[in-house]
Amino acid sequence: MAVSPSSTTGSVVQLSRVSKSFGDVKAVDDVSLEIQRGEFFSLLGPSGCGKTTTLRLLAGFEEPDDDGGEVRLLGEVVNKKRPYERKIAMVFQSYALFPHLSVQRNVAFGLEQRKTPKAEIGDRVRRALEMVRLEPDTFARRMPGQLSGGQRQRVALARALVLEPDILLLDEPLGAIDLKLRKEMQLELKSLNKQLGTTFVYVTHDQEEALTMSDRIAVMDNARVAQLGTPAEIYENPRTAFVAKFIGESNFFGGTAERRNGGGWEVARSGGGRFLVPDHPAIREGRAVRIAVRPEWMDVWRPDAVPPGENAVGGTIRDVIYLGETMHLIVTVPGCDDVTVAVRNEGQLIKPLPWKRGDAAAVAWRPEDCQILEEV
Amino acid sequence: MAAVRERLLAWLHPRPQARAWALLAPGTLWLLLFFLVPLIIMFVYSMMPRGIYGGVDPGFTLEHYRRFFDPLYLDILRRTFVWSIACTAICLVLGYPVAYAIARGGQWKNLLLFLVVLPFWTSFLVRTFAMIFLLRDSGLVNNWMLRLGVIEHSITLLYTPFAVMAGLVYGFLPFMILPIYASLEKLDLSLLEAAEVLGARPVERFRRVTLPLSMPGVVAGCLLVFIPALGSFLTADLLGGAKQMMIGNLVQNQFSAARNWPFGSAASFIVMALVLLAVMFYLRVKDRAPGEAPLR
User: Which residue of A lies nearest to B199 if distances are taken between CA atoms?
Assistant: First the structure.
């Protein structure tokens, strides 16, 4: 298959039913996805979920199984192509800077391998270093061993970006640097992505990082894509309990659909009581229903003061936790796990929360804030 | 006794320098007594007249050093250097791929390492004798070649430069393999992946990443082969016969059969000085070589 001329627009990465096994273990199982040109696309999941193997399939360090689908880059099937035959760049988790080469030699490495004219190399190395905000005159001659973690990170990025790749693969590049610098780099990466128009494929286990930077996220679980969507779709409408739990915090309630009520359904909760949920194609009368509700979409009321029209479950305050920006109220509810409710901290010194351990309380939320999970 | 130990430890604890010295002392004393003192004795002997029944007579002379610059001895010296360099080069060419294979050997790594070290279980003398059985006119090598029809008559292998070189390479090869293995083994595999994704094909990847990063092992291996090869005498003695003398044979001969201790000492010191110069030169060149020139 030749390179399609349409590769200037549309999807630059296509995985069609891709599988990869190591021995008996399926590391990537029937994964299909498309990544658009210029997109910031994250593969998110816990360790061992297959996200890194997926990235390595794109880089060419791994080959899909013999009947394991197709990997296409810029329209071309690359299943059997070695990394040096693919037009990609990559930033490694460990940075993988060549310790025997100076910063400028590291950055020039890819250009030299790709037979870039000598006269051009020096200039492009300079520009790449400036792009990642490393002063060329200060850093060009340094050895990697003389740099801090954050500086190494920037050199690794420059070494990849200097090739002006269509696709940049990043394997947890911010895992090893401290929190403050990490936040800064997240924004920088995002703005580089927009500014250069390069497609970024980003592997991370950090949900907050993925939400901050990505245009779209593929949440991976157990070698498969559990959900694919924009950060808002993933966070506000998780399809499975795994996604709801992995991205942010969630409270889970289960029950049986009893009857239609207005535009939604009335559900008998397993622990007693009822709640309303919006309509959903998967709900049938008598079927089990499981929902997730985000802590910040709930409120705690006195049992007799729940606003009308809201779902409510009664329980006992187990803990009041001070987190700074927010307060968490942990409520013990019969028939399900403890429920966490997040409320804004309006100043505990001036206006303390009226709750203490052992108080009887009702947790309430609006029916439209129920996220209905597909697997029960 | 326990009280003394307690007090000694209590005294050492706040004194890191004293602790370092305490750790260094046994080895240092050993070397002083059995290495430095004999070396000084030899140095003194090398400038005294020769005694009739071995040993030395009182007096001072530089005659032995002057005598060494006889063409006869210089020839031996030249041969020794050429052979040692050749031996080092052959060990490097044979040893590097082996070290590379072991470092990438996966589950076989330990077995392969064990096999490399296995020859040390027998004495070098015995192993060198074994080579005589391989190489002599009616030895295994000649027998096989005759049977396979490679040759029609036995060829002389033993007591030739070939036999000496084969023996030297055989004896020193593990000293090349082990340090190179050690440096390849700790090579970060993600560096190789980085090179590949930056467009380096396998040959380029080896030239620009693997080889430079294994240079410390190569340097150590070359020194570990070159220096002992230069001083070896057993191999040349057993496999080379009288014609293929190396400097080690000369020295050994002076101390035993010829009973000329001062001349043996002088020869030793000249070789030592030359080794020192050669190693210094080598380390200089090596420091300059692998780093790549800056851009522009």
Answer: A84
Nearest to A90 among B191, B197, B204 (CB): B197
Nearest Cα to Cα of residue A30 among A223, A194, A260, A187: A223
Confidence at A25, pLDDT banded by 50, 70, 90: very high
CA distance linking residue A47 with residue A58, whole number of Å: 18
What residues make up the domain containing A208? 5-245
Residues in chain B: 296
User: At B210, which amino acid appears?
Assistant: T
DSSP state, residue A366 = -
C-alpha B109/C-alpha A247 separation (Å) is 43
Chain-chain contact of A88 with B188 (C-beta, under 8 angstroms): no
The CATH number of the domain where A276 resides is what? 2.40.50.100
Fold of B76-288: MetI-like fold (1.10.3720)
CB contact under 8 A, B198 and A159: yes
Do B237 and B251 form a contact (C-beta atoms < 8 A)? Answer: no
Chain A residue with minimum CA distance to B196:
A84
* Pairs of residues, one from chain A and one from chain B, whose beta carbons lie less than 8 Å apart: 76
What pLDDT does A1 receive?
39
Q: Any idea of the CA torsion for A81, A84, A87, A90, to the nearest 10 degrees?
A: 110
ipTM attached to this prediction = 0.85
CB contact (8 A) between residue B292 and residue A105:
yes
pLDDT tens, position by position, A169-211 = 999 999 878 888 899 999 999 999 999 999 999 999 999 999 9
Last residue of a domain, one of A204, A228, A245: A245
List the alpha helices (DSSP H) in A114-206. Answer: 118-131, 136-139, 149-161, 179-196
Give the strand order in the sheet containing A311-322. A299-301, A360-365, A311-322, A326-332, A339-344
